[in-house]
Amino acid sequence: MLLILTVILIALIFEYINGFHDTANSIATVVATKVLSPRQAVMLAAFTNLIGALWGTAVAKTIASGLVETQVVTQEVLGCALLGAIIWNLITWYWGMPSSSSHALVGGLVGAAVAAARSWEVVIWSQPSSEHWYLGKGLLWKVVIPMFASPAAGFVTGFAVMGGLYILLRNWKPRWVNALFGKLQLASAAGMGFMHGTNDAQKTMGIVALALVAGTDQGLLDNLPESLHFLRISKASGSLEIPAWIKLLCAVVMAAGTAAGGWRIIKTLGHKMVRLQPVHGFAAETSSATIIGLASYFGIPVSTTHNISSSIMGVGAAKRWGALNWTIVERMVWAWLFTIPVSALLAYWFVWLLQLAGMIAIPAK
Question: Is the pTM of this model over 0.85?
């Protein structure tokens, strides 16, 4: 029981770090355009993250049961997966690079599971649904393809939305544009915060649920008093429902982390990559929120970071190709590409060390 609670605590620490690490995703543009002060923007993001996190569980179910075989997942494996993701998040936060907490978590989970089983066969690469092949489970359909498709969609959508606005507003005076989109950006920033909650908070919900499913299957929760029976979660029926208390707990922790702010990454996204006006911020946030909303509906754990960053790039390219700071863009892309392999390798090493220490069994060949 103590081990399960420890894993849940580590998961909540990850959720808190995810909150302040990814705060910049939803508020960088609204701060950069001076529509809101940093403090006001953080409070808006925290509130909308909280509401969004309580909206649906499709992404949580993917994390809990759609990426690796659950029989190999133990509390120790989950702890190592989370530590790998946390370390990578802190490294990229320190350097002000907007990497993906989502992909860090996925990488950690895959790396830890592979190390525990000493086999790649525990990874669900592709398992298309019989009804809708494109909604299949697995690393390929839910992570690898969206890893490249969602930033591309964000860039194209941001470019198209900004291009359309340039055409519609070509005869407007700048002060009229700033006045209108200064108000509209409040709505787009709130929408971005909401969509961030619908996707990112649910990943930790899935990890907490996975820990409790593993604990239930392994009999670790058999002797609980009746008042704690709510901790037992089973997949015996073939489906996994995320209890309301897990949703609320993760939502509140993410909101608290968001309220702590993430100023290093805000500076990179909102000031260093491209100079933004309210109309640019509105276009980027609207584009990114749309892509993330679609992904959340289909249970795809996409990167909020990738989407808002690529949307800002698309908006900047529509403004002027040379308006983008390509040195910053290159550093961000490298951070994106390294996230899954580095977090997976860190988690793999942690499991390997615990196997050497005799705390995790080495599977027989």
Answer: no
